[in-house]
Amino acid sequence: MSDDILIKVEGVSKKFCRNLSRSIKYGIQDVVRDSIGLGSKSEELRKGEFWAVDDAFFELKKGESLGIVGPNGAGKTTILKMLNGIFMPDKGRIEINGRVGALIEIGAGFHPMLSGRENIYVNGAILGMSKSEIDKKFDSIVDFADIGDFLDSPVKFYSSGMFVRLGFAIAIHCEPDILLVDEILAVGDSAFRSKCYQKMNEIKSKNKVAIILVSHNLLAVERFCNKGIFLHNGIIKSQGEIHKAIQDYQKIINQLLEEQKAISGVVPGMPYCTKEAEITNVKYLDKDGKEKREFAYGDKLGIRVEYHTNHNILNPIFQISLCNIEGVHISTFGTHLDSIQIESMQRDGAVECWIDSLPLLLNKYYVTVAIYDKTHNITFDYWNGSVSNKYFQVLPNQVSAKMAEFTAICHFKPRWKVNGKDIYVE
Amino acid sequence: MASNLYIPNKHLKLGIKIWPEMFQELIRNRGLIWRLFVRDFLARYKQTVLGITWAVIMPLLMVGTFIFLNRSGVINIGKTDVPYPIFALLGLSIWQLFATGLTTCTNSILQGGNMVVKINFPKESLVIAALAQSIFEFLVRIGLLVVIFAIYKIIPSWATLLLPLAFIPLILLTLGLGLFFALLNVLMRDIGNIVTLMTTFLLFLTPVLYPPPSSGFFATLNIYNPLSALVTGSRDLVIFGYMKEPLQFLVASLISLIIFLISWRFFHIVEARIAERV
Q1: What's the ipTM?
Q2: Which of B78, B225, B241, B270 could staple B159 via S-S, CB 3.0–4.6 A?
C-alpha cells in the first residue's frame, strides 16, 4: 500500500436488524459464539436483518477530500462509524493509516455538570490526546471556540452553538491525519460555519489531512470536496468527481419525485393546481435573448415563462421566485407586485421577466414559477426548477472572486461618499 | 504513523497475540482512565451538599442498624474478637470496595452509551474508571475507621500496611466480574438489576457483618465462597496481623485471577460488537 493512501475500503458491508427483540437475540448469539471462539457467520443475513452498507469500495489519499451524499438512511453515518472503528464491518476490510479524528456528533462525551475547562481535558483524553498535548493547545482551543466568560461554567449552561464550537475546537486540535465530519456544522451560525470550513481547508492543504464530509448541504459539499460518493440504500451508486456524484444524487431525487407525482398526482410541497393554464416551458435567457445556463455577476438575465391554455383567462398573475441551490429564497417578482395588468391569456404565449444586472455570486440557482387567477387565490399551474432539474449557474468573475471570502449570497453595487464628497467607481 | 485494520472477527483471529495487545492498550490508556475517573468524581459530588461524606454515611447506617438489632435481641451475631463496631465497619468497608465497585462497573458502559456509539475509544477505560471510584470511596472510609479505632483505643496491627497487597485479588475479582457484566448489561438491561440484587444477597451470605461460622451449612458455604476468604483475610490482617486461613485466601486469589483473565479477554473480543447494540 502506497504511503499516500490513508484509507482503503475493500468490499465492506455492514448489516443491522430492524427488530429490537431479534437484535437482542442476535447480539447474545454473536457474543456467545465469539467468546467460545467460534466466530460469527457475519457474511450471512439472518431473519430481519438487512445490509445498511453493501459492498463498498473506495480509497482516499493525503490532502484529498471526499463528500458522501445521499438521502437519509442511505448508510452514510454507518460508513463513517466503520472508518472510525466504532462498528466492525461484517464483510470486507478497512485499512486506515494515520490518526483518525471523528466529528460524528459534537459534544458526545461532554459531561453537562463539568465546566468547559474540565470538559476540554476529558474530551481531549477521549480523543486520544495526552495531558501535556492539551496543555499546549489549551489557549488555541479556547480561542477558536470563542466561549469567553463561559469557560468555567458547566457546559449545561451553554447555548447549543457554544456547545458545538467547543466540541469542534477540541476535535480539530487533536491533529488528525484523517478527519471524519458528519452533518454537525448545521447547528453553528454561519460565521462559525465558515470559520470551520476555513480551518478544514487549512489543515487539508497545509497538513495534507484527508477529510470525509457527510452533509445534506450539497453546495457546501460541492465547494469543499474534490471527490464524491453517492450512496443510496447502502449501495454506492456513483463515485468519482464530486460534481458527478451530486448530479447523480439529484437525478435520483428527481426520479423519486416524479414517481411520487405519478402515483398521487402531487409533488410534496407543491400547491394544488387547477391546470386551466399550464406552464409549458421556462427558459433562462442572456442579453441577446438566447437560452443559456451560465451567467456572471452583473450580467443581464431574462426568465421566460411559456404557457398554454384552452380557456380565456382574464387578468392572470405571474409570480417568479428566485432561490439558490440550498433553497434559500432570494427574491420574488410578481406582475401584481409591480401593478402590471395582463389583460388576458389565450392559447399559447410567453411572459418574460428581465433583470438588468445580476447581483448574484458564485452558486447554482433556480426559479419557481406560478400562474394565479386575478384574486391570487387559485393556482393554475406551478413549476419548480429544482424539481425539473433546471438550474442556472453564476460563474466566477472579478467581482465574485473578491466576494468569495465572505459568506454573502448576493452583492449590490454601492455608491460611496467620503467626507461629503461623492466618489465614483467604475 | 498509527495504522489500523478493521475486519470481521478481528480479535478472534489474533489468537494468543491478544494478550500483549491488551496490556499495551491498558498502559496506553492510563491517562484516559484517570481523566474519566476525575470526570465521574467531579460530576458525582458537584451538585451534592454533603459531598464525599456520602461514602461513610451508608456503612454507618448499616452498622448502626446491626448494633441495634443485636442489642435488642432480634438477631444474634455472636462473639467477635474486637468490639463489634470495629469488626463490622472494617468488614463492610472492605465489602463495599467489591459491592459498589461491581455495581458501578456494571452500569459504566451503559451510562457512557452516548459516547460509546459516537466516539471510538477503549471502552474498558470506562469500567476501570468506575472501579477507581469505589477504591476512592474506600480511602475516604479509612478516615472513619481511624476515628472508630481511636474511640475504642485499639491500635491496628503493623500488617495493615500490607492491605494494599491483600486487596489485589479482591480488586481483580471485582474488575473481572465488572467487565463481564458491563458488556452483558448492554445486551440485556436486566443484568444491572440482577447485580444489585446479587450484591445485597451476597452481603448476608458472606461473613461481613458477622464472624465466620465454625460449623453447619454456612461454614461449608464459606469455604467455597472466595469473597468470604478475601474479606475475612484482609480483616484478619488488620486485627491480628496475620491470616487465620491463608490457604483459603490463596485459593480465592487464584480463582479471582482466573476470573479476571477470562473476563478481560472476553471483554476485548466482544467490545467491538457493543456499540451497535447500545
Answers
A1: 0.81
A2: B241
